[in-house]
Amino acid sequence: MENFTTGNNDFLEEKNITMTYSGIFSRNGQKVVHVCFERKTGGDSAFAEAVLPSCTFLHNDGFCPEEIEMLKVYLQMKKDSIYENARGINRNILFKL
Fold it and tell me: CB neighbours (10 Å) of residue 60?
């Protein structure tokens, strides 16, 4: 299994993966955050979308099954910090663009 660090995004940087996420949404009484992973190297690209807190992937195009499993573990480890940062995102901004 990959070596994950707790202080920063070393795992994502090593794999040239960018992670972005939404603000917190309420869905069925649960606080939900959508997380996207993207990798663009040369002419190849990969994109996956997951939802917290379940760490379930809704979409995957280009990541192999082993990478998806590693990203699930990463999400589980980083869930608290992602939620903390997502609280600062104003979801209304997304709708004004």
Answer: 17
- The residues that bridge with 19 in the sheet, in sequence order, are 37
Q: What's the CA dihedral at 29, 73, 8, 83 to 10 degrees?
A: 0
What's the pLDDT band for 46 if we cut at 50, 70, 90? very high
Q: Determine phi and psi for 37, rounding to 5 degrees.
A: -120, 135
Give this prediction's pTM.
0.80
Cβ atoms 19, 12 nearer than 8 A: yes
* Over residues 2-13, mean pLDDT: 56
Rg (alpha carbons) of the chain, rounded to whole number: 14
